[in-house]
Amino acid sequence: MTTPLLEVTEVGKTYGSVIALREVSTVVNAGEVTCVLGDNGAGKSTLIKILAGLHQHDEGEFRIEGEPVRLGSPREALDRGIATVYQDLAVVPLMSVWRNFFLGSEPTKGFGPLRMLDRKQGREVTRKALAEMGIDLRDVEQPVGTLSGGERQCVAIARAVHFGAKVLILDEPTAALGVKQAGVVLKYVAQARDRGLGVVLITHNPHHAYPVGNRFLLLKRGRSLGCFEKADISLAELTRQMAGGAELEALEHELRGAVS
Fold first, then answer.
1. CB of 238 within 8 A of CB of 37?
2. Which ranges of 30-113 does DSSP label H, i.e. alpha helix?
3. Which of 98, 129, 140, 179 could form a disulfide with 162 if both were Cys (CB 3.0 to 4.6 A apart)?
4. How many Cα atoms are found within 13 Å in the side-chain-facing hemisphere of 30?
5. Are 212 and 180 in contact (CB under 8 A)?
6. CA 81 to CA 183: how far, in whole Å?
7. Is 248's pLDDT higher than 60?
8. Do 12 and 58 form a contact (C-beta atoms < 8 A)?
9. Which residue intervals define the domain ABC transporter in the entry (predicted)?
10. Helix, strand, or coil (residue 133)
11. Of 129, 126, 161, 162, nearest to 144 (Cα)?
């Protein structure tokens, strides 16, 4: 059996008297998408922060490729091959696409104090990396702020893939996008998966998660409602669980009574 890229077992996190996460378990395998679903306040952000090295868990175990870890920083997570793309994307809108692609890791030429930015190499590598992901931009010199939300998400995904990420964590990548742009982003999520990355897709939309997901972790108020393989749960059941299941049915019955 292949060792998972990431695995959390009975993980918990508290902030003072507030229980943000309790007894949450799931795995992330190479070439698969693990979807984490839940409404606001479900614990999705807390789980991301633990996986990305921003916070440490208080309970349970977090393993990377079988090794128990307590990540001390996002840099440490990145060094272990875990790249996180947040909703704000951490881009500089007025900078060009290729400068954002290399942000913090710019290619240079020359030696010692005479080293300077290698713009030609930067443009060529960015263009090639985007093309390999199937992203065709008119001009990598254009400011990244001129791209659509979907295109910016795709650039961020391609950047993580290019710099050697083994695990790609995507925080609500389709939340602020229209139907067509969301579909484009999901296509690149599937491409990252097919290139052998383990993907963690955070979302509150089961209709976005189900087409690309292999596994679905459902969170509610910091607790797990279950972690299901795709073969074990339908889209209808996933949606029902997300909507509250029995709670929603009780509300529907109450509303019908009020109308009649």
1. yes
2. 44-51, 74-79, 97-101
3. 129
4. 11
5. no
6. 26
7. no
8. yes
9. 6-246
10. coil
11. 126
Handedness of CA 33, 38, 39, 42 (dihedral sign): negative
Check: CB of residue 135 under 8 Å from CB of residue 188: yes
Take residue 89 and report the two structure tokens written for it: 């994307």
Q: What percent of the chain has pLDDT over 90?
A: 28
- For the chain, give every domain's residue range: 6-259
- Chain-wide mean pLDDT for the chain? 86
Residue type, 260: S
| Mean pLDDT across 219-226 | 88
Read off the pLDDT of residues 9-29 as tens digits, 9 standing for 90 and up.
999 998 888 888 898 999 999
Q: Do the beta carbons of residue 140 and residue 97 sit within 8 Å?
A: yes
What average pLDDT does this structure show over 230-236?
A: 91
Helix (H) or strand (E) holding 247: helix 246-259
In angstroms, what CA-CA distances link 94 with 103, 105, 107, 171? 13, 18, 19, 23
Asked whether the predicted pLDDT for residue 95 surpasses 90, the reply is no
Q: Encode burial over 218-243: b for 16+ CB neighbours within 10 A, e otherwise.
A: bbbebbbbebbebeebeeeebbbbbe
CATH of the domain spanning 6-259: 3.40.50.300
Q: Which helix (H) or strand (E) element contains residue 132?
A: helix 119-132
In angstroms, the CA 260 to CA 140 distance is 60
